[in-house]
């Protein structure tokens, strides 16, 4: 991802503070090799008590290295600060995240610890129908191209979102994805986002996803499918070829502090 200089410096400085229960998530790791810039850095935590602790320790380290911290919000579930140095600024958020996910967090040289790519993808799918942000559409295309086909990501997402069906998720994305050229012009990207190509591709991928979920058995909604250890979009006519994988709270491979 084309990180700004200040984001690169912050991530490098704070990487040693990250662990399996305090990890980078959101669009920053999702787009690390893509073209979209992120305006913030999100650090997620499994427990509420870790948020305040991590925010204060990280902020002290940043200040010790010449960064200016302007606190915007200090609540039990979310701490938000604007971090500045040498004329550059970015937003930093420490938040509570659900410990229900498909895979444990993974160590990462740049970020310290990061949410697993498949969980980054399914979380982004959920965000794309839970709010109206054109940057989410750009990220959906990145997910399809670099992590997991959009149909499989939508299928798995409902395992984290009780009450939703894959068909319902597709319909919600279509309903909210009504953006203008000006909306996409506000998305920081290098090269710039092509609004027509982006929306055309989204419609194509949603049509493919719709055809896929229509052929899948409803009792398997919310599951991932693995082939030779890799998460894939399965052939609905040959599901016996694949190993299924469900999300859970605190997977066994999680390295717990306690």
Keywords:
9 helices; five-stranded mixed β-sheet; 258 residues; 2 domains; single chain; 12 strands; disordered C terminus; Nuclear Transport Factor 2, Chain: A; alpha+beta
In short:
This protein is an alpha+beta fold.
Architecture overview:
It contains nine helices and twelve strands. The chain has 258 residues and is of the alpha+beta class. Strands 1-2-5-4-3 form a five-stranded mixed β-sheet. A three-stranded antiparallel β-sheet has the order 10-9-11. Strands 6-12 form a two-stranded antiparallel ribbon. Strand 9 (224-227) and strand 10 form a beta hairpin. Helix 4 packs across helix 6 (150-157), helix 4 (117-130) packs across helix 7 (166-176) and helix 6 crosses helix 9 (195-214).
């Amino acid at each position: 991802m084309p990180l700004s200089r200040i984001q690169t410096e912050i991530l490098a400085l704070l990487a040693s503070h990250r662990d399996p229960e305090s990890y980078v998530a959101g669009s920053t790791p999702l787009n690390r090799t893509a073209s979209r810039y992120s305006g913030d850095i999100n650090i997620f935590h499994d427990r509420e008590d870790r948020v305040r602790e991590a925010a204060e320790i990280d902020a002290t380290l940043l200040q010790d290295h010449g960064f200016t911290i302007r606190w915007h919000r200090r609540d039990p579930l979310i701490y938000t600060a604007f971090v500045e140095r040498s004329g550059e600024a970015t937003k930093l958020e420490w938040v509570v995240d659900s410990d229900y996910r498909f895979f444990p967090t993974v160590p990462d040289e740049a970020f310290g610890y990061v949410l697993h790519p498949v969980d980054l993808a399914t979380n982004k799918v959920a965000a794309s129908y839970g709010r109206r942000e054109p940057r989410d559409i750009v990220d959906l295309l990145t997910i399809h191209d670099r992590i997991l086909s959009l149909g499989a990501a939508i299928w798995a997402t409902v395992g984290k979102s009780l009450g939703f069906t894959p068909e319902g998720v597709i319909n919600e994305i279509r309903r909210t994805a009504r953006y203008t050229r000006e909306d996409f012009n506000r998305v920081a990207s290098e090269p710039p986002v092509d609004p027509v190509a982006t929306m055309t591709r989204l419609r194509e991928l949603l049509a493919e996803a719709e055809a896929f979920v229509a052929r899948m058995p409803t009792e398997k909604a919310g599951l991932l499918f693995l082939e030779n250890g890799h998460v894939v979009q399965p052939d609905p006519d040959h599901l016996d070829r694949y190993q299924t994988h469900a999300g859970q709270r605190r997977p066994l491979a999680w390295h717990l502090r306690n």
